[in-house]
């Protein structure tokens, strides 16, 4: 059985985690399929936005505990366990995590590696690794802290408690909540909107926002301005501005 189902609708690629018997737990096999699939679509100019999703009742229950349970530290270090999962964060195409039901541990970390998190009203987030005698290992301590601040991140990670969609939205973990009814349609509408903009402009916006997490304000603003200037060498900039002046809808060619 395929652990991830890929489906393209117009310029949107949907990657649906498909390991229901284990609540979409992220096995090495599943992650291999997800990473190689996403990297191929990332390089495809017909894809302007990616959605990663699960199903109505669970997004993902985390990394596969059964696969990890018997490993020792030497093996974990030698395999550099989880290191290659960071490849998700390196993708250039905008990624939306569409979370319905629970997103625990690696599921929450996968969502945080995405660019936008849309939650259904029934979404529940959490970093329960502390209950397993370990800590988040796929960026959770770092990304959650950057998103919600030290105090909330400490509370969530040290207690391992559930975080409802409403709380996740309030503290800035989630971008927006949509009703459970027609959740995927709401997400798809947003994704189509994004996907039809200029891909080179989208990639540049994503890179620039991510840079703000790594750099100080002054050099970040310089970085932004340089990339802003470079976009004036693209046909999409000419088309976007000309269309505004001519009062028509731009037709971005998505030349890269
Ligand atoms: N890994 C492997 N298998 C998992 C799993 C996981 N993360 N989560 C659930 N499963 C399996 C269960 O073992 C069970 O399998 P069997 O039928 O063979 O027993 C099946 O999925 C169904 O699970 P439950 O019976 O537990 O379902 P539930 O509805 O009663 O509970 C749940 C749902 C609260 C999500 C519960 O499954 C749970 O707590 N899962 C683990 C959550 C967790 O701790 N995630 C963090 C993992 S570590 C991590 O992600 C990485 C990291 O950064 C270190």
From TrEMBL:
Enzyme Commission identifier(s): 4.2.1.17
InterPro entries tied to this protein: ClpP/crotonase-like_dom_sf, Enoyl-CoA_hyd/isom_CS, Enoyl-CoA_hydra/iso, Enoyl-CoA_hydra_C
Domain of life: Bacteria
Pfam families found in the cross-reference section: ECH_1
Stored PROSITE patterns: ENOYL_COA_HYDRATASE
Keywords annotated in UniProt: Lyase
Presence of the UniProt keyword Kinase in the record: no
Keyword field contains Lyase: yes
Entry's Gene Ontology molecular function annotations: enoyl-CoA hydratase activity
Protein family: Belongs to the enoyl-CoA hydratase/isomerase family.
Protein's name in the database: Enoyl-CoA hydratase echA8
Organism of derivation: Tenacibaculum polynesiense
Gene giving rise to this polypeptide: echA
């Amino acid at each position: 059985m395929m652990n991830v189902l890929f489906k393209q609708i117009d310029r949107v690629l949907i990657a649906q985690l498909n390991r229901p018997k284990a609540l979409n737990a992220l096995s090495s096999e599943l992650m291999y399929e997800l990473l190689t699939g996403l990297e191929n679509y990332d390089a495809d100019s017909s894809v302007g936005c990616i959605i990663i999703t699960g199903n109505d009742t669970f997004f993902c229950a985390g990394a596969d505990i059964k696969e990890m349970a018997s490993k020792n530290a030497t093996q974990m270090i030698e395999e550099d366990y989880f290191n290659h999962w960071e490849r998700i964060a390196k993708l250039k195409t905008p990624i939306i995590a569409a979370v319905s039901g629970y997103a625990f541990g690696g599921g929450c970390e996968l969502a945080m590696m995405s660019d936008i998190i849309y939650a259904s009203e029934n979404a529940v987030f959490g970093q329960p690794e502390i209950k397993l005698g370990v800590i988040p290992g796929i960026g959770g301590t770092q990304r959650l802290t950057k998103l919600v601040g030290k105090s909330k991140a400490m509370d969530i990670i040290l207690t391992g408690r559930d975080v409802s969609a409403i709380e996740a939205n309030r503290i800035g973990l989630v971008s927006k909540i949509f009703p459970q009814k027609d959740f995927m349609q709401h997400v798809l509408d947003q994704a189509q909107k994004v996907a039809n903009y200029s891909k080179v402009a989208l990639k540049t916006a994503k890179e620039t926002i991510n840079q703000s997490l790594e750099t100080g304000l002054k050099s970040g603003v310089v970085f932004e301005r340089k990339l802003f200037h470079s976009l004036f060498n693209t046909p999409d900039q000419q088309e976007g501005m000309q269309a505004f002046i001519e009062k028509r809808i731009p037709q971005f060619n998505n030349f890269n």
